[in-house]
Amino acid sequence: MRGAGGSDGGEFNFVIGLVMMVAGGYLLLSNIVIRPNFGMGTRAFGLGGVDVTTGMILIPFMFGIAMVFYNGRSKIGWALAVGAIIALIAGVISNLTLQFTRLSAFDLLVILVLLFGGVGLFLRSLRG
């Protein structure tokens, strides 16, 4: 029976690396704060130098929904409704602000050593 990555003795590095990666990833992601900057009058995204707001995205959505309710097989109605939903989701995601919480330099270094040290051990265990 062979170990992790088909090599002998890679199980210890595999398990320790995996635990370190999970711990470092959890600590990194738990120290990130997400703040939305999105509302009805805010810019969703730019399209050819024109700012597209969320209100502008809702106009084709309303027409698409009306067309779908009038005729459920209307391809244009479905395209307008689905396209507007995709544009709204893309606008929300693009307007999120990601920030770190207050961390000391020691805390950040411990998180990074756990994360990238775990990646190194994990990859070493898979090496043949």
Written account of the structure:
- There is one protein chain.
- The chain is of the alpha+beta class and 128 residues long.
- It has 2 domains: 1-31 and 101-128; 39-96.
- The protein contains 4 helices and 4 strands.
- A two-stranded antiparallel ribbon has the order 1-4. The protein has a two-stranded antiparallel sheet with strand order 2-3.
- Helix 1 (11-30) runs antiparallel to helix 4 (105-126).
- 15% of the residues are buried.
- The model has no long low-confidence stretch (mean pLDDT 84).
- The chain crosses the membrane at residues 12-34, 46-70, 76-98, 105-123.
Please give a handful of descriptors for the protein shown.
single chain; 128 residues; alpha+beta; 2 domains; two-stranded antiparallel sheet; two-stranded antiparallel ribbon; 4 helices; 62% helix; 15% strand; elongated
What topology emerges from the helices and strands here?
Elements: H1 11-30, E1 32-36, E2 43-47, E3 50-53, H2 54-70, H3 75-94, E4 96-100, H4 105-126
Antiparallel strand pairs: 1-4, 2-3
Transmembrane segments: 12-34, 46-70, 76-98, 105-123
Keywords: Membrane, Transmembrane, Transmembrane helix
Distance between the termini: 14 Å
SSE string, helices as H and strands as E: HEEEHHEH
Mean residue pLDDT: 84
Extract low-pLDDT stretches.
none
Give the beta-strand count: 4
Strand content: 5-15%
Based on secondary structure, the structural category is: alpha+beta
Count of DSSP H/I helices: 4
Measured on Cα atoms, how large is the radius of gyration? 24 Å
The tally of structural domains comes to 2
For the largest beta sheet, what order do the strands appear in spatially?
1-4
